[in-house]
Hints:
Layout: H1 10-33, H2 40-72, H3 78-118, H4 132-136, H5 140-235
Helix pairs in contact: 1-2, 1-3, 2-3
Amino acid sequence: MALLNLGEDPWLVEYESCEKLYRDIMEQLMQRQKLSRTSDKYSHLSATIRLRLKQYNNEVGQLKQKLDITTRSDSITAAESERRTRQLEILHSNSIKMQNLFQNQASSKAQEDRIRLMGDAGASAWGDSQTRDELSNYSADQLKTDQKRMLDEQEQGLDNLAQIISRQKNIAHTISNEVDLHNEILDDLGTHIDRTDNRVRTETQHISVVEAKDKTCIYWVVIILLFISIIAVAAI
């Protein structure tokens, strides 16, 4: 059976959505590569990329399931089924590429931080890439300067970490205050509900009394009318 309305096929629409998501994730990975691993933006972007990678894999899985269904139902031709299978393979390959890039970025950033904090082993006195002449030219003053620079960078990294922890603490306090406020509101609401319930019960009792009195009055009116009727009949 020939495939009709390819431009409006839901499978093709979802496939284009996957491709767009792939381009967006790659753009975010490029932005992440330029950021410092200790920055808030790096952490936020990393969390966003993780979620979007999971979304991408889920959408690719859904596309595969739908392709299997349409292939079994002969809704598309064999050639079209093969073409879409190759497209899915490309999507899957892109997923592996993005995952590897994401992990490699984290590893390279960690390595850069270690080099920044501990110093490049290749540039130290114990490195294998320098000759003895170059090591002899590395003065004590230069060594002190490099050590001071590394300590300053390490302290800066610790300061950034302390700021992040402080912000997380403030967020936790804010959430705790919001929860306490909501609990107070719920307590007040419960008190108002209890008061309203008591008033409703009291008013219900009053209504019952009024209804009983109304019924008694009706009975007396009927009795009086009967008494008057008896007297009128006796007089006749």
